[in-house]
Each structure stands twice: as structure tokens, then as C-alpha cells.
Amino acid sequence: xxxxxxxxxxxxxxxxxxxxKEEEPENNSDSEDEMNTESHIKSLEKLKKIDxxxxxxxxxxDENLLNFEADSEDDISEKGDExxxxxxxxxxxxxxxxxxxxxxxxxxxxxxxxxLKMVVQWQTDLQSEGKIKLATITTxxxxxxxxxxxxxxxxxxxxxxxxxxxxxxxxxxxxMCVLYLPxxxxxxxxxxxxxxxxxxxxxxxxxxxxxxxxLKDLLKLLSSVTxxxxxxxxxxxxxxxxxxxxxxxxxxxxxxxxxxxxxxNSEETVRVLAFLCILRITRNQQxxxxxxxxxxxxxxxxxxCKFVSPSTWPGINxxxxxxxxxxTLDLNISYQHVFLYIRQLAIHLRNAIVVQKIENxxxxxxxxxxxxxxxxxxxxxxxxxxxxxxxxxxxxVMVITNTIKLVPTHQYYPLRFQCVEILVNLSxxxxxxxxxxxxxxxxxxSYDFNKKHKKVSMKPLDFSCVLRLAKSQLMENGFKDSVxxxxxxxxxxxxxxxxxxxxxxxxxxxxxxQMKQFLKSCSVSNYTKKMRQLLEKIExxxxxxxxxxxxxxxGLSEDKMIAAWEASLRVxxxxxxxxxxxxxxxxxxxxxxxxxxNDEIAGELPxxxxxxxxxxxxxxxxxxxxxxxxxxPSDSEDEGDHFKLGEGTEDPAPKKVxxxxxxxxxxxxxxMPEIDSIPDKGDVVQDFSASDW
Length: 693
What we know:
Elements: H1 26-50, H2 52-61, H3 73-79, H4 116-126, H5 134-152, H6 167-189, H7 204-224, H8 228-240, H9 242-245, H10 249-264, H11 268-284, H12 286-304, H13 313-327, H14 331-354, H15 358-362, H16 367-382, H17 393-406, H18 413-430, H19 437-446, H20 471-474, H21 477-497, H22 504-507, H23 509-521, H24 525-549, H25 559-572, H26 575-596, H27 598-603, H28 613-621, E1 642-645, E2 649-652, H29 656-670, H30 684-687
Antiparallel strand pairs: 1-2
């Protein structure tokens, strides 16, 4: 056989390889790889002795980098490139994307980088039973500043002394400051005694600079947060720091600006906490800030009460009550503001009366004007036992009464009822006689309730969030129902408040005459029934007062004796007042149902209209031509009673008892929850527990 020569297979030339230049033999490359491997192993052994921490880091994160000898020839052939050279394949990357969340305990710390160990140590220092060091507080404030720089900077880096990297470190730093820093500052300044001014403390000068920086950062954080839960936590913290905020006028103004914004349009809990912060900051610096705060809060209130709906009413009521609280801090300063704002309302009203234009009337007949009247009436009522604001009662009443007279048409009956309600509350709280009855009885005499309606509405119109009615609404029967309901309620409330007065028969005389005229002219039984009932109660109370007046022996000029007699009669009780209290309980239940929307829920469920017993008996006796359809069939029906169905066909009718049972079954589905179980949304400020924070 011919001998076969063993020839060495040459590798193809690569494009980058120069022509005519052959590759080096494989033996040389293998020997060089072995030498490189040995040198790497030696250098790694040397690294292990010099820097064991870094070697451990490499060993944990990339084992393949250290295991050169473990690679077999098969591994090299599989991992080699086109030239057969060995390639290093790094191990899988382990760990979270957030470096600080999973820290290596043995890793070398970066200069200025905040770690969890450092945060734990700072917390321990802040909670120490001994003296709190200034260096600890300053360091914690610097860490908080670094966290804020990370949150507010575009690239997430901070240029300060410390660096906060990762969300876990950020959260731990914020949590540490919120929970432990206020108590540490208080202990450092020696403010264990409540009510002590920080500026009078011995060490205040040393901590003034870091404290100012911390409060600035805290306000930045408060402005950048949108979550209600986080805002709640930060506002509780700010309330604790309010004593120190009041030490810096510039910081106080910035804080109040943000807090007033939160107070006016935020979630309920956030509103309450923002108001508590405003109150505390203002009281700590009352002479410098009260004027500015009262003006800013009133303008914000007017701005945010432009539109009224069932959803916005609670917020408007809360703002009004909290504003009354702010104005009562110093009534001498408040007098100037209240006088100015009532005068502005009077000027708008005068322009509307003198210049008969739509623009001028619209400046008065709007919710901002009415809510302002509500505010000042509530403030004067709340301070009725103090003399400062009582001179403003008369001009306010004149503004309200002339607002009613400006456009006394049927369309503005809801606005009239709003103003009358304000006057009734003013008269009750200030114990001042205000002639309200003419504005209510005028509605009964000026409108024709016998006029037939052109539209039918299922429910009475709700006047609580309306000032002006459309012409189409005036044609509905629900309009007349609502008017009678409101007139009845306001007449009853006002006369009940005056029922103990010695002049009650004289006060109600003209109203009684006009109510009798209404009963003669009105032919709608539902309306006359309610008014006749009220008239009887008023006349009964008048007779009661006349009997009691017959027993007195003092003269009408003895004011103190008359006041004592009226007070004793109020304690004893009057027939009209007793009737009003019972009616008011039912009325409150109905209002709660409206708030909880029980009527809407019940409207979605199937309901069967109850028929009167007399009507049902007549229907059973009278034959009715129906189709061959049988409703509520029963085996135990009486043979004597029949419905005539179709032509001559008869089908036994169900018993009345059976019908009642079916009605009861259906009615169980429609039952509303008990009144005690309905949540009563009362005063938010009173219900809020201060011990929570």
C-alpha cells in the first residue's frame, strides 16, 4: 500500500491576517496559556494574603474568576474562540439592583456612604438615657440632608458629606428622624418642661444652624410628597417640630403657606393635621403671624367655597369651624378683619341695590357671599359671651335681611331659606330677637300653591346645595313639596326657640293671622295638614304663656325679673319646645339617611307598594277584566271570592293573609340598617384624637 504522509492541517487565514505570515505552532500557544494560568494563580494567592476582604468579595461574586485549574480540555474546547484560545465566562450576577438593600458585611465601606449599621448606631445614640451629644444630632441632620438631596436631585446623587444610596437606607434615615429626632432635640435643649421657649434654652445657639437646615429640608420633603398616608406621618412630625418652626419667621411663613394649601384641599385626616400645625405655629408666634394667617385663611376659604355639592359640604364646614377657632385667638385683632370683610359684603349689596344690573346681582347671589355670611354669623354666635364682636351683629343682620329682599322671587327661595337659617341660628345663640317670621310667612302668601304643576317629580327638590332654581323646576310638584317642608321646619324651629319668651303671643300674632289666611286659600290637603298642625301647636304655646304671665307680679320694666322668669320657663319646658325636640330627632334621622345614601340603595331594590286595607277590600269585591294570567296562586284559596278573568272565566283570588305574607318577605330585603349603626359624620376637629400623635 502506498504510504500516507501525515500533513499538518493549516488554519484558514483570517481577514485581518497579513498574507504570507503563518501562525505560530499550537505548542507555543498551549505553553503560554499554562504560564499565564500559573502567573494568575500566584497573583491571586498574593492577593489573598494582601487584601483578604477583596479576595472574599471575588470569591462570593464570581467563582469562575478564581477557578482556572478546574477547566478541563473539554471545557476549553467548548468555551474557546476560533483560535482555540480560552475565554473567561463570568458567573451569574447575584444581588439586588439596589446595592444598599443587600450589603456585604465584610465589604470595604465607601467614604461618606450611609449604611444600615450607621443608622442603627445613630438611633441608639438618639435614644441614650444620658446626655445627647450635639455631634449626634448634627450628624443625623446631615444624613437627612443627604437623603433629601438624593430624592430631589435629577441623577439621584448627593454632593454633601454623606451619601444615601438605595431606598431602604433612604426610608431608614427618614424613619429615624421622624421617630427619634424631636425627643432628642428636646432633651438636648432641656425642654422637658412643657411650654418652655426654645430660644431661651442654654444650648439653643449651638443647635440653631443645624435645626434651620433640618426644617428647610423637612418642608421640601412635605412639598414633594403626594401620598395621604405619608403626608399624615410628616404632618404629625411637623406638629412636634412646630415649637422650633416658630423660632424662624421665614420658615414659619413657608410652612404656613404649604399648610394652608393642605388645609383647604386635601383628604380629611390631612386637613385636620394641617390645621393643628397652623394653630400651634400661630400661637407660638401670635403677634407676628396672626394677622397674616387670618387673612390668608379667609381668602383661601372664599376661594374654595365657590362650588357647593354634597361632596364638598363637609370640607367647607370644616374650614368654617376651624376659621372660627383661629379668629377667637385674639378678638381685638379679629375685630378689624371681621369689620372690614362685613363692610365689603355690604358694599357689594349696596351696588346691587343701586345699580340694577345682572353683574351686580351676581356679585351677591353666589355661594361665596352666602358662605361668608355663614362664617361671620357662626363667629359672632361663638363669641356671644364676649363683648368685642357683638357690635357687628346689627350690621350683619342688616346685610342678611337686605340680601333676602334684593330679588324676592320664587326662583331664589333656596337662597332665602339659607339666609333665614343663618338668622334663626344667630337669634338662638346670641339670645337676640330678630324678626324672621315675616320672611317665612311671605312665602305662604305670595305663591299660589293651588296652581297645577306641569311636571311630576318622584322626590322633593333638595335645596341644601342650590341657591337659584330653573324655570323648569318651578313647574314640578317637588318644588311645592320642598317649599312647604322648609317653611314648616324653619317656622317650627324659630317659634320653638322663642317659645319661652314672655312676648311669645305678641311675636306670633301676625304670623298666626297669615297662616290662617293660607289655610283658607290653599286646597291641597297635604300642605294644609302640616300648616294646621303647626298653627295648633303655636296657639297652644301662646295660651300656655298667657297662663304663666297671669301669675307674675312684677312689671314689664324689670328686665332682670323677666330674664329670670324666661330662664325658669325654658328649664321647665314649653309645649312647642317639646314638640320641636321630637320632630328634630326624626329630621336628623332623615338627614343621616341622605348622607349615607340609604334611599339610593333602597331604590335599586325591588319594592312593593303597600295598599290600604279599605282599597284592597274594594279591589277584591270589584270585578276586573284581566287576561288569563294568575298572580300569587295558592291552593288554600277561598272559593267564594273570585276575579273574573277573560270572557266568563273565573279564577279564585288569593287571600289577603297570603298577600301580606308575600309583602313581608319582599319588605325584608328593603329594610334599612338601624339608626345606631349609621356612622354619624360629626365635627372632625372634635372627633380627632390628639393622643394619636
